[in-house]
Amino acid sequence: MGRWHAIAAVAPVFVVTRVAIFFAATSATDSQVYYQYGVAARVSSVGTLFREYDAEYPQLAVLFSAGVGLVADVLPAGAERVIAARPSFPADTGTARFQVALGLVLGAIDLGVLLLIAHLGRKLQPNDPRTQTWRLGLYVAGTAALGPILYDRLDLVVGAVALVSVIALVSSRPIVAYALLTAGVGFKLVPAVLLPLFVVAAAVQRAGRFWPAFAREIVIALVVFALWPGLSILFGGGDRAFVYMKYHAERGVELGSVYAAPLLAQDASVGYAFGGYVVRGAAADRVAKVAQILTIVGVGLSFLVAARALRRCGSADRVSVVVAGCVLTWLVFILTGKVGSPQYLLWVAPLVPLLPLRTRAERVRAVGFVGAGLLATLTYPYLWPAVHGAPVPNQPETWAGPTPLGFVLLLARWGAIVVLTGWLALRLWKFDHRAPFTDVPRTKCGGHP
């Protein structure tokens, strides 16, 4: 049973948690929006949708929603009743069937990610089923911690794209990796921040001097990446192909962001705009602008830290260093951004299990990601009323702000992410090619035995 030992060990927990999430625990909110986009795209076209409506998602996300709609069409009559136990079962049959189909599609992606982690885990520790099981357990537990949103949001797809891109990159297929990341950008913009890191990793893998290889990889990556705006304009709405960028640029500081608690401790209130709860006040407007600068600076610094480690690592460490760089970059993006939604942790969920697990301390810190997911889920949806507070009388769509419990949840959630981000940054900064970054056995020359 050696090859399947790790999968067999986590399979019961995976099945039980996924059944509970699919049938009863999913808090369906965003899926209702996806359903509307999918219907609009199928009735006319993606290009027409973008020309006539201020969409908030890129074209591939809309196409994905339309594809889920096709799956919903072939479900048997009455299939929508299987999710009747969910806390927000919709009255509209079409929406309910779409939610069933979305859960099935995301469930298939979820299973695929588990199998890919198992595959990479066997390569990283071919003779260590215990660590392989740890990796799969981290994925199952981390995603289960985010259970209410796991099968309601598209963010798991983003994490899956990153995982497959990493596999292509470390398999010496950088063009495939660039293409996958570019497709991910057409789905949700955030994979774009990983592209510079992939360019460095690809250049390091090439024989010869680094800087000529780096310049060559930049050109190749830009050519591939240029397909995204070109195809978006041609088939996705012409001059309105990127209208969703305006939507995200105009969003304020959301209640789930790291900035919310400090702002609400002052003279600020909670309102509702752009489909979410936002912090209102003059200070919040200024912070929203500053946050964009902080995000650029933070992501840039995380890239430099990860690139430094990549240039110092050997082939035995490359998978873990690339993964650590991706996780660090995305955590910094999440931490400094003005939105900070809980589902963003689904981006890193497929990558965290591939971080170094050589020591007990590394395993404890990796489990910290599960804790961050649990705190995010407590924040939303379970204790969300404590976070936005009581309604303000005579002021529509206005809330007083967090209760003491709400403040504790926000501070604990972001405190955990700050600690994990800092640990990962320090781990990469102190990387020493003479000491193993992973627990892969080595020869005296530093390579695989």
From TrEMBL:
Membrane-traversing stretches: 98-121, 133-151, 157-181, 193-212, 218-237, 290-307, 319-337, 366-384, 404-426
Keyword Lipid metabolism: no
Signal sequence interval, chain numbering: 1-24
Record key words, sorted: Membrane, Signal, Transmembrane, Transmembrane helix
Superkingdom, taxonomy of origin: Bacteria
Name of this chain's protein: DUF2029 domain-containing protein
Organism: Gemmata massiliana
